[in-house]
Task: structure prediction
Amino acid sequence: MLCLTLTGSTLEENRALVERNRTWISLAELRLDHLHPDEQKIASSFPSTVDLPVILTLRRTIDGGKCTLAEKQRLQLLYEASKGDFAYVDIEDDVKKGDLKFKDPLFEQKVDMEVSLRQRGIKIIRSYHNFECVPADIFGRISKLAAKGDIPKVAVTPNNLMDIITLFRVQQELSDVQEKIIIGMGEFGICTRILYKKCGSLLSFCSDSQAAPGHVGAQAMSTLYRADKLDEKTHIFGIIGNPVYHTASPKIHNPGFEAIRYNAVYVPFLVDSVRAFFKLAEMLQIHGFSVTVPHKRSVQPYLGRITREVKQIGSCNTVVRIQNMWKGMNTDYYGFLAPISEEIGKGAIRHALVIGAGGASRAVVWALHNHGVKVTILNRSQEHARSLASETMSNYDTLERGHLYNGAADLVVQTTSVGMGELSSMDPCPSFSFTGNEIAYELVYEPKETVFLKKAKDAGCRIVNGSQMLMEQGKLQFEAFTGYHYPHWIQADL
Ligand code: ATR
Result:
């Protein structure tokens, strides 16, 4: 079940949020602490105005909420609101039993809120939050919360991949606790939100407003990752990197799986330790994964087989499980060649200029070299350029001497990070000018038109942008992952 966290300041705003996200969610959580005080007083009416089950929550600031009331007043407010037709009420695990008894003008004796909720068929969620870490006693904590007869909820903060392994072990260790909610918050935790069923969690929270650290939007959870449709048979694929959430690869693979009705999901994994990831990959029976910066080299000791390209380039961007062995490939190599294969085949590219001498450049320079193209590498660091040039029998030069190559190259490839993010207004090689006869090939895919591409376009060059290579290498990964061609009718929105 996907649960939308409602953080509007009015009930009307929250109803609109439910309406907008209705097709993707099956549950909503009304966050009383986000409501305006006047609206809090009428919050009990909310569940009967929406057509899905609602969780009632009033979060304190120490648990990541906005409620600053004294504890007594907070619980009183929660009690009043809980008179509505909610499906669940969230009560923090450290709230004492005695504090949940209230004087109510309608009754002679004090009302025990827990008893009253149970009598009305409202389930209690017992929540524990930790914004620092995944505590060592997490399994014990969940058992203890469950022993009270309610639904335990633990929202903890994984700080590394070993913590993620702990969260995925919850189901193994506590399979007897039928209903539980397990959440890994923060950046590391995003894979546990998508694969919540693998953690044995009853539901996963999502929101458009990042109501909690690591929240993914309801639409992405439901239509991109299909998190609520995953089952025991779903094959898990993914991408490992650090950082990793900027990558567009989930938008290539997930729609591809769906189009050919292949029961699989492709998940981003923030990875600080490759060794830990291979452990996780065994545990989750991951079938294959893409590799991005900074792990393209460090995965290699864990691979049973590598292709010729990986050996040559020293960089692996794709790993697949083949008969219980990990095989490493490099689809950047062929992905780079695909958009210019015709010109390469005709021998129309004889001399190429490659700007940059980093990891991405290595695949490009080797691919060109292997196809008989003479390469000159222009790079800021002469040491990096010299080292790659000597391996690949290429020439190299400084970025300042780019003008010496005006008109000399059939292809100019931009492989540096200049042109994206903070460097988006920069020209990677200001000294170089296009004549208009070159093919200009940019590896940066965000933004779509970099300074480099604009300069080439203004000169009348044929242009290949970064998303073309991204797509081509992704299609090859898809084939390696599934054994099927990438569905040609899919137009991935990169
Ligand atoms: P990737 O794997 O994406 O290629 P990388 O291995 O870090 O990343 O390589 C980055 C490339 O961008 C290098 O060629 C780097 O130049 P140096 O070898 O001199 O470091 C280049 N680069 C990064 N920032 C740059 C900048 N501000 N100006 C010029 N070149 C830059």
About this structure: The CA atoms of residues 306 and 328 lie 5 Å apart. The domain at 335-471 is CATH 3.40.50.720 (Rossmann fold). The mean pLDDT is 96.
